[in-house]
Amino acid sequence: MDITVSHTFLQVHDQQAALEFYRDVLGLEVRTDAPVERYRWLSLGSKDQPGLEIVLEDPSMGRPADDARALRALLAKGSLSSLIFRVDDCDATFEKLRAAGAEVMQEPVDQAYGVRDCAFRDPSGNQLRFSGPIKAGAVGAAAAER
């Protein structure tokens, strides 16, 4: 059986602000921007992963009002989704996002599990991590520090 992930959903409180962040700051491509009844189906993706779409979803879309309120409350606390993006250069990505005004959660650090990563919040409070290779020689140094 062939199986792949085609869509992942991020709850956002403002689809337009999220679109501007994911498209203009991260450089993702708009895949779909279409009305669905009184909502907007808005998805983006990386040119390097044409089969994967990140849907920026209004918490009210397709849900009862009580569920939408609960999701909005969790979203406001930053307690919902997160994504990890693989990048070639974690430090360069960090500087680009910081310069764009993204909320920094963690500066670049070498992790014991073999990557260098950093973390930000998107305009809705979702956690985004950016993970890349550790620079040559740094893996042993990071392990020696522990």
Walkthrough of the structure:
This protein has 146 residues and is of the alpha/beta class. The chain is 28% helix and 36% strand. It contains four helices and eight strands; from the N terminus they run E-H-E-E-E-H-E-H-E-E-E-H. The strands form two sheets. The chain has a four-stranded mixed β-sheet. Strands 5-8-7-6 form a four-stranded mixed β-sheet. A hairpin with a 2-residue loop joins strand 2 and strand 3. It is globular, with a radius of gyration of 17 Å.
Fill in the keyword field for this structure:
single chain; four-stranded mixed β-sheet; 8 strands; 146 residues; 4 helices; alpha/beta; disordered C terminus; globular; 28% helix
Low-pLDDT parts are 140-144
Secondary structure category: alpha/beta
Instruction: Bin the strand percentage.
Output: 35-45%
For the largest beta-sheet, the strand count, sense and barrel status come to: 4 strands, mixed
Shape: globular
Concise synopsis of the structure shown:
Helix content is 28%, strand content 36%. The chain is α/β, with parallel strands linked by helices. The protein has a four-stranded mixed sheet. A four-stranded mixed sheet has the order 5-8-7-6.
